[in-house]
């Protein structure tokens, strides 16, 4: 959506519009409803719905501003489920969740139906740094960019109860969307029932760590306010909101995806490298001061109790419940909330991977393996591309794409009916050959310079090749190597060639040039390309790049990247021998401030 609306929608409008278009907390399934085209058995009756409506009031947004037409129906549903917080209770509440977990452990390969009796939490995603609620992070960003404090007495009618009308406390919309909002729900919904025995930090497990789609909650009690994922998401949202205004002052063109990408990476945010998810414990106390947390939790709790409470709670009693909640939260945070997290660099290659499999593995195992490849290769707009080829027919099961949602959707569509029954070398290589040919023709026609490294991955543990297949495959491989050769650089490795090497290097020193931001250099290849001698390949290396964090184009994944444009220009030259020759000029334009040194 950012790419589609790059010039019309900024981060403020993007984040707030996502909230108003896709977020809907507290959805519950209603039984005994006669379902029709116009009647669906779902409604906002869950406890999360009250806070959601309050957020909707205090964080303005325009749901119609988003270019949702570019998203498939599956992508829209995926985004809705990722940011909409709801806890779905099991159908059979007489059967304990603990029993089903033990049963699952005993029979690990049994159907996942054994776990259906555990409550499921929606609105959560799995990151390398734990399970979080992305709705809280997006909400915090939207609130920070439209920050406001609203007095509680302005949110109620003047004819309502005197304590609320006389209340002078104000609700900060950033705290509402994050940690204070979660703790206020705990105080209001558990306090009257449990008092000092209120509980928080409910954790759970994913049905599959390689393709995580369902998150089950495990708890000895039936209260699921302020779960661990909600607390982590709320803290991350507060941390980002604490720094966001400063970052925007330094670089006004920041995008929502850049904030999320940088914070949930080992490098951290470009402008504050110590601000990152793997080091959230160090910034927690700065972003979440105890006094303000108590004040905001009480202010929000007043409104939640006013709009939906199981009992009348006096202001004094509510303050006491909030105090207990805050103490429990800080005790939990100090002892359990921040385990040591990996904060090291993960190298992800940028390639175009063509995956072929012969069906020897089970469907579930193959899906899991390909899902890990999608993640490890970082199939995305700024990462790798992937395609999947049927090992028997040579047909495409997944056209080459850089869309992770498209890739995962293709995995979900794998069925027994389409499953490979073996490996056909000839058909697969013909498919690969045809694809590479079309790709190179397209690049040549559109003057595209350079491409991802192309890799063919064969997952064929049961493959057997006959002599005829081997001969046919060898012929195709030779054609591939001839048309699409792999460049190799040979370097002298013995002292006997030192003098010769010095002479060769000195001939090319003029081609090592310095390039600064917004400047252009031209490199000329004086090789005479004629009808009988084709132009040679041109190899370019750019190194020692430094950035001033100003990369604002949509092509830049993060602000510290450097974007440059390379253009080729052919010039026909008439020489004394009356032969037309061609000079290749390589123009390099640096768009942002950086320097290149040899």
Number of strands: 17
Oligomer: single chain
Q: Supply the number of structural domains.
A: 2
Largest sheet, strands/sense/barrel = 4 strands, mixed
Q: What share of the residues lie within helices?
A: 25-40%
Secondary-structure class: alpha+beta
Q: Please give the order of strands in the largest beta sheet.
A: 13-12-11-14
Strand content: 15-25%
Low-confidence stretches: 104-114, 487-493, 577-583, 591-598
Question: Could you tell me the mean pLDDT?
Answer: 83
Q: What is the gyration radius calculated from CA atoms?
A: 30 Å
Record the SSE blueprint:
Blueprint (H helix, E strand, L loop, with lengths): L10 H12 L4 E3 L12 E3 L3 H11 L14 H11 L2 E3 L8 H10 L13 E3 L2 E3 L2 E3 L1 H12 L3 E3 L10 H5 L3 E3 H5 L1 H16 L8 E4 L8 E4 L9 H23 L5 H8 L16 H8 L2 H18 L7 H23 L13 E7 L5 H14 L8 E6 L5 E6 L2 H9 L12 H21 L7 E7 L7 H17 L14 H9 L13 E10 L34 E11 L5 E11 L8
Parallel strand pairs: 11-12, 11-14
Antiparallel strand pairs: 1-2, 3-4, 5-6, 7-8, 9-10, 12-13, 15-17, 16-17
Structural notes for this entry:
The protein has helices at residues 11-22, 48-58, 73-83, 97-106, 134-145, 162-166, 173-177, 179-194, 228-250, 256-263, 280-287, 290-307, 315-337, 363-376, 404-412, 425-445, 467-483, 498-506, and strands spanning 27-29, 42-44, 86-88, 120-122, 125-127, 130-132, 149-151, 170-172, 203-206, 215-218, 351-357, 385-390, 396-401, 453-459, 520-529, 564-574, 580-590. The protein starts with 10 loop residues before the first helix and ends in an 8-residue tail after the last strand. The strands form seven sheets. Strands 13-12-11-14 form a four-stranded mixed β-sheet. It has two domains: 11-29 and 38-93 and 115-337, no CATH class; 351-513, 3-Layer(aba) Sandwich (Rossmann fold). Strand 9 (203-206) and strand 10 form a beta hairpin. The longest helix has 23 residues, at 228-250. With 598 residues, it is α+β, with helices and mostly antiparallel strands. The protein has 18 helices and 17 strands. Helix 8 runs antiparallel to helix 9 and helix 8 (179-194) packs across helix 12 (290-307).
